[in-house]
Amino acid sequence: MEIENKKLTIVEHLSELRKRIISSAICLILFSILSYNFSERLVNDMISKAPEVNFVFIEPAELFMSYIKISIIGGIGFSLPVILYNIWLFIKPGLIHSERKLIIRSLFLGGILFILGALFAYIYVLPMTISFFAGFQIDQIKAMISFRNYLSFATTFVLSFGLVFEMPILMVIVVNLGLVSANTLQKNKKIAVLLIFIIAAILTPPDVISQTFLAVPMVLLFEAGIFFAKLTEKNKSKK
Fold first, then answer.
1. At residue 161, does pLDDT exceed 90?
2. Which of 82, 92, 175, 208 could make a disulfide contact with 27, Cβ separation 3.0–4.6 Å?
3. Bridge partners (DSSP) listed for residue 146
4. Could you give the angle at which helices 208-238 and 167-176 cross, rounded to 10 degrees?
5. Residue (of 160, 152, 164) closest to 70 by Cα position
6. At CB < 8 A and 24+ separation, what contacts does 78-84 make?
7. Is 151 within 8 Å of 70 (Cβ atoms)?
8. Residue 1 pLDDT grade (very low, low, confident, very high; cuts 50, 70, 90)
9. Residue 187 pLDDT level (bands cut at 50, 70, 90)
10. How many CB atoms lie within 10 A of CB 216?
């Protein structure tokens, strides 16, 4: 429905919002059902990341609920482009051309960075972290972790890295909007590093290793954000 060239009433706005929510919800449900068929494959792959650990489930429905959780996460991941597209269609009429351009670029690059961060965590960092913790077991105490706890740990870990990789995009956006300058970010680097380690401590499980694995890429991404923010300011001043 073309809604750019006319002013909508409150009822029409609510009707449009309802349409977008229903469309997104249907897509989420369908992809979640589809993802359930691949849950066991993902479970086997997750187990292969921690060969030193014998996983167990301690409640009758625990493994089944883990499959459901995996299918919902997969449904959200696969349906996210459709959800974002519906959000875009809803807010697009209220944006000017430059704002639309900025949002489209940010969503595209942000999506790529999120996927890279999540894959980096899942393929490289997660196995190293689990291997490190498994190394603490002794003859009298063997690692037998509940798969539900492992799934929660891995999900938090992967999502944290995905969100952290969004940092350069957010920095470029705030600089482009004039909310802060690249020089200000450069001058407050020490404070930013301190905040990064605090955020890493909040996002990751309470251990130094996980926090360090998250904090170090965040510092590097902050440096990259400053670099791209300076380029943004130069291009802006030229225009």
1. no
2. 82
3. 56
4. 30
5. 152
6. 78/31, 78/34, 78/35, 79/24, 79/27, 79/28, 79/30, 79/31, 79/32, 81/111, 82/23, 82/24, 82/27, 83/24, 83/27, 83/28
7. yes
8. very low
9. confident
10. 13
- CB neighbourhood size of 217 (10 A): 19
Separation CA 80–CA 74 (nearest Å): 10
Three-class secondary structure assignment of 29-91: HHHHHHHHCCHHHHHHHHHHCCCCCCCECCCCCHHHHHHHHHHHHHHHHHHHHHHHHHHHHHH
Longest dimension (CA), the chain: 73
Average pLDDT over residues 149-157: 88
Token pair for 141:
């105490």
Cβ pair 55, 145 in contact under 8 A: yes
Among 48, 55, 50, smallest CA distance to 146 is for: 55
Q: Where are the beta strands (DSSP E) in the chain?
A: none
Mean of the per-residue pLDDT values for the chain?
81
CB atoms within 10 A of CB 125: 19
Phi, psi values for residue 165, rounded to 5°: -70, -5
More confident residue, 203 or 121: 121
Stronger pLDDT, 89 or 79, i.e. the higher one: 79
Measured distance CA(15)–CA(21) in Å, rounded: 10
What is d(CA 142, CA 53) in angstroms, rounded to the nearest whole number?
8
